[in-house]
Design a protein that fits this description.
This protein is α+β, with helices and mostly antiparallel strands and about 190 residues long. The chain has helices at about 60-65, 70-80, 120-130; strands at about 5-10, 25-30, 40-45, 55-60, 80-85, 95, 100, 105-110, 135-140, 145-150, 155-160, 175-180.
Length: about 190
């Protein structure tokens, strides 16, 4: 267990703070900035948004890889990309591989807003088109006491909620988020 976090909207939260605002969250993996991102994500719904929406999206990597050309996939696997950490972590630049395979499963290290040169890189712009296609997402509306567990290598997102966030905190959408990885061997997959 690497992290357990309460996910609830708070006044004054920034757009980038997905666990503290009620805005849609673009597709991203948990731990994007970390040298070794977690393997799995768990989202447990304590209280859904009272007016609906706020679904969890999980990218359908199988669909994306079927639609992408082999040359594009080859570039995602072999090219070195660069991430910029958040301001809180010093805006540091680090190299990373966008697409790797772990025991046969694709792991797409994706977070558009922190990938250097994203909007000028043709391979990333093609990926953005595929990631932006609603047909390439699983959409899950969690009810109270329901849990979704997913492979972190398939980026997740949050869809728009319906209506405003209630003033009273006890009525706001609330999730518990947990990230995990194996005790041994996981780090070997992220040695560039």
């Amino acid at each position: 267990n690497n992290a357990v976090t309460e996910v609830i909207a708070y006044a004054g939260s920034t757009r980038e703070s997905h666990s503290k605002n009620d805005l849609p969250a673009p597709p991203h993996i948990a731990g994007f900035f970390e040298k070794i991102p977690p393997r799995n994500c768990y989202f447990a719904c304590i209280r859904p948004h009272p007016f609906g929406g706020g679904e969890t999206g999980v990218l359908n990597l199988e669909s994306i890889l079927e639609k992408a050309s082999s040359a594009l996939i080859d570039e995602w696997e072999n090219k070195t990309y660069y991430l910029r950490t958040s301001k809180r972590l010093g805006n540091q630049i680090h190299p990373f591989k966008l697409l790797i395979y772990i025991e046969g499963l694709p792991f797409l290290r994706y977070r558009r807003e922190y990938t250097e040169g994203f909007d000028s890189d043709p391979s990333l712009l093609e990926l953005k088109k595929l990631v932006s296609d609603p047909d390439n997402h699983y959409k899950v509306l969690l009810g109270a006491d329901e849990i979704i567990i997913h492979w972190n290598g398939a980026p997740h997102s949050r869809f728009s909620q319906v209506g405003a966030t209630p003033e009273e905190e006890s009525k706001r959408r609330k999730l518990i988020r947990c990230r995990t990885q194996p005790n041994y061997g996981w780090e070997s997959h992220f040695q560039n």
